[in-house]
């Protein structure tokens, strides 16, 4: 069921939601959170589709905020709010309100969203594109317990990671971090099979300007305390991780974006499923936890600049030999496994 409202108010939108639920014979509200999606017309359809699919696991009220740019000075001075209310099958599991802001109301989107939030329910704000420089201080981000960005959609993802580190606040997270959860879990499990072995260096290979590869490299460097080299491959996405150990290398290699091969000294090669996930799966994972992600914060603040390049890998390894030996792999694996579970 869809209800179109032109030049409307938040009060009329709330009334339309109530009428829509009553028309469907379901007046009770059974949603667990409010998901606010801040996007543009170009990306609104894909973002809403992903949110609808994720809502099957997390029933929610979805508020899609689209800021329409006015062409003339007269239109920019005139504030107008148009809305499309969807309930029932048209809204996945939950309710959807598409808000189109025109004119001066664009600068006061929080005043439109605030009356539409579910009472006593967590709020998650997601920017598929065009995230603010400081999500926690953004007027809409300030309403949320969890703020989701995606550095992959930025023109310079590596520079964006540095900005995210500088402005990080508890509750911030990024889709680039969510994409590497299966990699972190698989690497932690591999290290558990090599108790007591020492890791001396690591290398992460992936496409250029891939923030997930940078984050995975920073996570390994932060957790293992060893030099980590970031190398460039043809993709797709992340392609390989190599951990140098006293017993021989541990290699997790994925060349096709779907199936990976885990190679360890003294053991047969194993094929493991490591496919690239859809946005709906990533969003569903993000909505499973609403508390601050300390592991993400620690990896992010490690800093891209501290990662090595292939040309600097040898000097870094030599410097590592002169320093005290790194922590045993057993301890590092336990830390990694705990971090991956978060």
What does this structure look like?
This is Glucose-6-phosphate dehydrogenase assembly protein OpcA. Residues 51-165 form the Glucose-6-phosphate dehydrogenase assembly protein OpcA N-terminal domain. The chain starts with a strand and ends with a helix. The protein has helices spanning 10-23, 41-54, 73-77, 109-113, 157-166, 175-178, 181-192, 211-224, 279-286, 294-302, 313-322, 329-341, and strands at residues 2-5, 33-39, 60-68, 80-87, 94-102, 123-126, 146-149, 172-174, 199-206, 228-232, 238-245, 250-254, 259-263, 270-273. Mean pLDDT is 86; it is low at 312-342. The protein has two domains: 2-149, Rossmann fold, CATH 3.40.50; 181-341, no CATH class. The longest helix is centred in the N-terminal third of the chain and has 14 residues, at 10-23. The chain has an eight-stranded mixed sheet, sandwiched between helices. The chain has a six-stranded mixed sheet with strand order 10-9-11-12-13-14. By secondary structure, the chain is of the alpha/beta class. The protein has twelve helices and 14 strands.
Please give a quick description of this structure:
The chain is an alpha/beta fold. It is built from twelve helices and 14 strands. Strand 9, helix 8 (211-224) and strand 10 (228-232) form a beta-alpha-beta unit.
SSE map:
Blueprint: E1 2-5, H1 10-23, E2 33-39, H2 41-54, E3 60-68, H3 73-77, E4 80-87, E5 94-102, H4 109-113, E6 123-126, E7 146-149, H5 157-166, E8 172-174, H6 175-178, H7 181-192, E9 199-206, H8 211-224, E10 228-232, E11 238-245, E12 250-254, E13 259-263, E14 270-273, H9 279-286, H10 294-302, H11 313-322, H12 329-341
Parallel strand pairs: 2-3, 2-6, 3-5, 6-7, 7-8, 9-10
Antiparallel strand pairs: 1-4, 4-5, 9-11, 11-12, 12-13, 13-14
């Amino acid at each position: 069921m869809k209800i179109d409202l032109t030049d409307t108010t938040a009060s009329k939108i709330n009334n339309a939601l109530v009428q829509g639920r009553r028309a469907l014979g379901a007046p009770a509200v059974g949603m667990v959170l409010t998901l606010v999606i801040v996007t543009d017309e170009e990306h609104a359809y894909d973002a809403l589709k992903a949110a609808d699919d994720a809502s099957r696991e997390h029933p929610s009220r979805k508020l899609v905020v689209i800021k329409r740019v006015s062409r003339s000075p007269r239109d920019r001075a005139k504030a107008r709010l148009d809305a499309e209310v969807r309930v029932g099958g048209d809204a996945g599991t939950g309710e959807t309100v598409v808000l189109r802001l025109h004119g001066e109301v664009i600068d006061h989107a929080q005043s439109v969203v605030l009356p539409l939030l579910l009472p006593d329910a967590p709020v998650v704000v997601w920017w598929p594109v065009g995230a603010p420089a400081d999500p926690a201080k953004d007027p809409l981000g300030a309403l949320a317990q969890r703020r989701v960005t995606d550095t992959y959609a930025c023109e310079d993802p590596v520079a964006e990671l540095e900005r995210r580190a500088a402005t990080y606040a508890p509750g911030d997270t990024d889709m680039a971090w969510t994409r590497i959860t299966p990699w972190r879990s698989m690497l932690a499990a591999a290290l558990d099979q090599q108790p007591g072995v020492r890791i001396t260096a690591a290398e992460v290979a992936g496409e250029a300007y891939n923030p997930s590869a940078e984050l995975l490299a920073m996570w390994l460097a932060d957790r293992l305390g060893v030099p980590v080299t970031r190398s460039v491959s043809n993709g797709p996405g992340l392609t390989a991780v190599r951990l140098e150990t006293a017993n021989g290398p541990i290699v997790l290699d994925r060349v096709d974006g779907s199936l990976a091969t885990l190679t360890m000294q003294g053991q047969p090669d194993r094929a493991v499923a490591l496919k690239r996930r859809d946005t709906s799966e990533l969003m569903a994972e993000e909505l499973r936890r609403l508390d601050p992600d300390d592991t993400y914060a620690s990896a992010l603040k490690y800093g891209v600049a501290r990662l090595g390049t292939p040309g600097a890998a040898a000097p870094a390894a030599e410097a590592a030999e002169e320093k005290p030996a790194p922590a045993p792999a057993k301890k590092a694996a336990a830390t990694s496994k705990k971090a991956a579970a978060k």
